[in-house]
Amino acid sequence: MALVLRRVPSLAKRGSKFPQIIQLSFPVPCQTQHSFSTSSSSDPLLKKLLQTPTSKITSTLDSDHSFNLKSSQLPWDPLVTDLRSSSPEKAHLVLEWRLRRMLDDDEMDRDEYSRLISLCGKIQNVSLAMHVFTSMEARGIKPTTSVFNSLLYACLLSSNAITAISLFEIMENSESYQPNSETYDNFVAGFSNLRDVNKMQAWFVGKRAAGFSANLQNYECLISGCVKTRDFDTADKLFEEMMSLGIMPSLHIMEWVLEGHCKRGSCDQVKEFLIFLLECKFEINGNMIENVVRLYSDLGKVDEMEMLLEIFMEFNQVGEALLQLHCGIIRFYAIKDRLDDVEFSVGRMMSQGMSFKSPSDVEKVISSYFRQGAYERLDLFLEHIKSYFKLTRSTYDLLVAGYRRVGLMEKLNLVMEEMILAGL
User: Where are this protein's PPR repeats (predicted)?
Assistant: First the structure.
């Protein structure tokens, strides 16, 4: 059987250099079937490979019988993803080893090859993905649309759009592996990650023209891509279009829309959108409020934050978002040395059963007390929070430096004794 990749001559040889229009590493916020979860660092095989010298990775895998390395059920995807973050070369060697074992074992399941190609994409290694594809074909295994999609997406993850488009053309001219909805999804996601809004939207239009319906993943990629490139008006239109089609937005989409409003510096739109989320009972998380607090703080609009806090409490909001808002207000007052407002805000937060989460926020309050020379009030503050918040080494260091600087030796000694008792 003639190899289909002969129609893309530069791709037919392992190790060949592929045309690339952009080279960069990027996260993949737009989820597809090729996106995998990460595993815990407690994975014994991962630990062993991290400790093994690069030169001995292959021999270690060959000789290790404590893991069922031949099994397709072994979680290769989280293993390789986690390994890549520490050593891309080791991740590459593991996948090379996996391919060799599949060939030695005369593996004929095309899904196994497709999964391996996807993993090559996760480590952004198009050459190896192509080698897996041609090895599969050499075994007489015919590719399918799913296999081509895996290969195409591997190219897009590696910023190799030209090769991806060449593969799409091969698919279009075939009878056995015609492009499907996932094929277009991969291009929308890929160009979103590359921040090429025009191509991203063109493939979205192409998907519809081919008779496929838009889905949640498409809108997530489109909206995130527009916000990243500061095309906020298009992001708003896409969000409205998605809602009009009855597609329920994901949390990620809500985060991107809110981030767009924050980047525009529009406090009114931010408040309006948050009220919309509250009224519709959508989740509001800490990351979303962190962006809002940053905007209001940069603009000096603490009254807007106070108003937003009242709205949150009216809607009986609890959890990380409310805590972020409390801490943002306290942080603002502390930086401005408005101690009365700091103390009121701390009391209000704690009356709702919440306490500081970040040592940095506590340290900003402490620094404000020192700047104002309010040492007795500082003592009361520390006494008040100690039951709810464990002071860290950096916080103790700040106290030690502050008391030493102003010559309060008695307080300095007490703090140092506390540090010893705390094992710091």
Answer: 109-143, 215-249
- 36: number of Cβ within 10 Å: 18
Gap between the Cα atoms of 414 and 260, Å rounded: 49
pLDDT by position in tens, the chain (length 424) = 334 554 454 444 333 322 332 233 333 335 444 433 334 444 777 888 888 888 888 888 877 655 555 555 567 777 887 888 778 888 889 899 999 999 988 889 889 999 999 999 989 899 999 999 999 999 999 999 999 999 999 999 988 999 999 999 999 999 889 999 999 999 999 999 888 999 999 999 999 999 999 999 999 999 999 999 999 999 999 999 999 999 999 999 999 999 999 999 989 999 999 999 999 888 898 889 999 999 999 999 999 999 999 999 888 887 889 999 999 999 999 999 999 999 999 999 998 889 998 999 999 999 999 999 999 999 999 988 888 888 999 999 999 999 999 899 988 989 898 888 878 7
CA–CA distances in Å: residue 337 to residues 173, 331, 370: 69, 10, 10
